[in-house]
Amino acid sequence: MCSEILSYKDYNGSVNVTNTKITYPKYDFNMSNIFHKYVNIRLFPKNHCYWNQCTFCGINNKYLDYSATWNIEDAWCQISYLENKNINYFWSIDEAIPPSILYQLAQKMNNNNCNFIWHTRSRLDPEWINEDIIKELAISGLTQIRLGFESASIRILKLMNKHENVEEVMDNIEAILELFFKHQIRVHFPAIIGFPTETIYEREQTINYLKKLKKKYPLFSYNVNILELDISSRLYKNWDKYNITQINLPCPLNDFMGNIIRWYEPIVHSAIPNLEQARRDAMLSQYTWYPKNALTEPHIFYRLYESGRYMLYSTKIPDAAKVEYNYKNFIVKKFPDLVSWKTQLGNYITYNPRNHHFYECSESVYNLFNDENILIDDMSYFPLIKGLLQNKFIYICEGR
Ligand code: SF4
């Protein structure tokens, strides 16, 4: 293991190294003309998150060629290219774009009478208390924005180094939300529980705060993650300063894939079963319709929902029983460089070395997706297929 990446030996004895250098194709048309015309796009391929200081976050270390300048002309070029191709939906996969840059981009789109529905990510930034910015974004077709919330505890937010002035941001959250909602832009907050030294009280504070916002604002949504220790994060580099008393090596294989490592911190880890339960309760409280005995945990459902980009098309989470499918039978192929193995529990994990996504499934689902040409004729697999397409596990060769 070196400072930023994990490596592991596979069954053939080859050493695989977690990829730190991501290259994106300029345009991703994988999904266009299939279910909906939309693309995932990095509007600013040379930029990572403009904050890049959260202690738990290692995502920005994946981008080695960082530029401090935001090239709006280049982003606009990409958008106008989409328009020429009649693609009106896009999902910007940039980590976090500053409000002022989004504003300039939206102005450009509006001056050119663009007709888009789109989604992006930014931060909870006091700069959002500016209705002009939000109005311009709404006119440009922004339908949802993701703003990293993480915790309602001031102490934990400070440990996370989430903001320059944590109190100021917390005081302004509802003002920011109300501006977005006034202009019909949905806001999604990802949250993290289980940060080192987080107490039960602080965790409940976070979850209760999210529930309160959800109750008050129909256009608000959230998801709850349990902290994973990314070895390219500052938290990992300084783990002893965060009351972490143990780092577990070697890691299970699927942890290598995510560049994460198991750890032990006495306050949080004495409460691990409670963390899982807390996440489940929080997610179920949002999905009141979700079957309580579903085999898929609600946070996994959320991930499928997100990777299928359903937010671009709906103003609320769809009722799964009412989803209508347009396609009957089609043939998909697996990408050739996937790696699969059987777990001790008999499930299968399939790992995509190009983007470090992996999915775990039962033997029957694994067998279904293990043929060379896979005929999909049972649309109950629809959410899974969309997730697999989105994460480049499979591609469609033929639709019938
Ligand atoms: S968690 Fe989000 S805001 Fe924080 S550094 Fe990472 S990408 Fe940036």
Report on this structure:
The chain is of the alpha/beta class. The protein has two domains: 22-322, pyruvate-formate lyase- activating enzyme (Alpha-Beta Horseshoe), CATH 3.80.30.20; 330-399. Helices cover 32% and strands 20% of the residues. It contains 13 helices and 17 strands. The chain has helices at residues 72-84, 99-111, 131-139, 154-160, 166-182, 200-216, 234-237, 253-257, 266-269, 272-286, 298-307, 363-368, 382-390; strands at 7-9, 15-17, 38-41, 89-92, 117-123, 142-148, 186-193, 220-226, 229-230, 246-248, 260-264, 330-334, 339-342, 348-351, 358-361, 374-376, 394-399. α1 (72-84) packs across α2. The structure holds iron/sulfur cluster (SF4). Residues 49, 51-54, 57, 59, 95-96, 123, 148 line the site of iron/sulfur cluster.
Describe the secondary structure blueprint for this structure.
Elements: E1 7-9, E2 15-17, E3 38-41, H1 72-84, E4 89-92, H2 99-111, E5 117-123, H3 131-139, E6 142-148, H4 154-160, H5 166-182, E7 186-193, H6 200-216, E8 220-226, E9 229-230, H7 234-237, E10 246-248, H8 253-257, E11 260-264, H9 266-269, H10 272-286, H11 298-307, E12 330-334, E13 339-342, E14 348-351, E15 358-361, H12 363-368, E16 374-376, H13 382-390, E17 394-399
Parallel strand pairs: 3-4, 4-5, 5-6, 6-7, 7-8
Antiparallel strand pairs: 1-2, 9-11, 10-11, 12-16, 12-17, 13-14, 14-15
Helix pairs in contact: 1-2, 2-3, 6-10, 11-13
Bound molecules: iron/sulfur cluster (SF4).
Iron/sulfur cluster (SF4) binds near residues 59 and 148.
